[in-house]
Write a structure and sequence with these properties.
With 321 residues, the protein is of the alpha+beta class. It has two domains: 14-110, 2-Layer Sandwich (Phosphorylase Kinase, domain 1), CATH 3.30.200; 122-314, Aminoglycoside phosphotransferase (APH), C-terminal lobe (Aminoglycoside 3'-phosphotransferase, Chain: A, domain 2, Alpha-Beta Complex), CATH 3.90.1200.10. It has ten helices and eleven strands. It has helices at 22-30, 68-84, 122-136, 142-145, 157-166, 171-187, 241-248, 255-275, 294-305, 311-314, and strands at residues 14-15, 18-19, 38-40, 48-53, 57-62, 92-96, 106-110, 195-197, 206-208, 215-218, 225-227. It has a five-stranded antiparallel beta sheet with strand order 3-4-5-7-6. A two-stranded antiparallel ribbon has the order 1-2. A two-stranded antiparallel ribbon has the order 8-11. A hairpin with a 2-residue loop joins strand 1 (14-15) and strand 2 (18-19). The longest helix is centred in the last third of the chain and has 21 residues, at 255-275. The chain is globular, with a radius of gyration of 21 Å. Residues 6-15 have low confidence and may be disordered.
């Protein structure tokens, strides 16, 4: 999360035990912010520690764990491109690393005022879809493209075979799943070339407005990549994907377009859900896909609760073996 969200900010600089480092206070002074105006943000991300610098700015400092510095460097590259497109994301004010106050990467951004929600409403998800359509349709400058990874599509069949061999799946279910994925691949035209994706459009990175609950901002570009655009929607619970795709496609699409998009999205949801089965438990993660079994149960939930028409027909379930 790279922008501060309003919350209960009335504290003494120790939000949930998080102290404000002297180096962050020194950085705030460079921007005319007094020490008493620097507070830990009420919500913290995985890759960076965020501090509120008064009413209008935040600073995100890369955590020391592997990969966190690279994620923040990527954000500093992608965010100016995203804001230049007109996307709803906080503008980058300053970036630095290796200076006298903070040795690792840091980024100062405009502060976002709004609220977080575990379950954004239909309006926010449709608006998210329109933002993603703008992002995916943009021509990416070579300098930006060179600074983000390229995610090549992989055949999920070998991974399923390994799970069967390791005892995580029965042979019959493994064969059934491989067959379903093959049907989905056949139902989808050749995927378009890779586009720039945000990479983590989960609810934790969405800032919402007041009564209407509209989308105010999309935060945290540390997972940005060049990838199949359908992969973007794997970070949204399947039961909410129709709302995002309705915004993305500017309305409910024709049947061929709808089937093609749902085939691509389902492929990523299924492959990611099965790949999570052998991963360790997660007692701290709060987002919807944090725990190993969550993705599979979210798929079940989508079909059990029912999807809206015509999406339900396009995301048809299959009979188990």
């Amino acid at each position: 999360m790279s922008g501060g969200i309003d919350g209960n900010d009335g504290n003494d600089g120790n939000q949930g035990g998080l102290q404000v480092p002297c180096a962050v206070r020194a950085l705030a002074r460079r921007h005319g912010i007094g020490a008493d105006e620097v507070l830990p943000a009420p919500f913290q991300g995985v890759a960076g520690t965020v501090f509120l610098l008064g009413e209008h700015l935040v600073v995100k400092v890369a955590r020391p764990e592997p990969g966190c510095a690279a994620d923040l460097r990527k954000e500093a590259l992608v965010v100016p491109f995203a804001t230049g497109l007109g996307l709803r994301t906080p503008e980058l004010v300053a970036y630095g690393e290796g200076d006298e106050d903070l040795p690792g990467p840091w980024a100062v951004l405009w502060r976002v005022h709004g609220r977080a929600a575990n379950e954004p409403g239909p309006r926010a998800y449709r608006e998210l879809g329109r933002e993603l359509a703008l992002l995916h349709g943009a021509s990416v400058p070579s300098g930006v493209a060179a600074g983000v990874p390229r995610d090549e599509p992989a055949d999920p069949a070998p991974g399923i075979e390994r799970l069967v061999a390791a005892g995580y799946l029965g042979a019959g279910l493994g064969a059934w799943l491989t067959g379903w994925l093959a049907e989905l691949a056949a139902a989808r035209p050749a995927p378009p070339g890779p586009v720039l994706i945000h990479g983590d459009v989960s609810a934790a990175n969405l800032v919402l407005g007041g009564r209407g609950g509209g989308l105010v901002a999309l935060l945290d570009w540390g997972d940005a990549a060049l990838a199949d655009p359908a992969a973007e929607f794997a970070k949204v619970p399947l039961r909410r994907v129709p709302e995002v795709l309705t915004g993305y496609l500017d309305g409910v699409p024709d049947a061929d377009t709808g089937r093609a998009w749902t085939a691509g999205v389902l492929t990523h949801h299924l492959a990611w859900a099965v790949a999570r089965l052998p991963t360790p438990p997660d007692t701290r993660g709060g987002h919807w896909s944090a725990q190993p079994g969550n993705r599979l149960l979210e798929l079940l939930r989508a079909y059990a609760e029912g999807l809206p028409s015509p999406w339900a027909a396009w995301m048809r379930s299959k009979r188990l073996p």
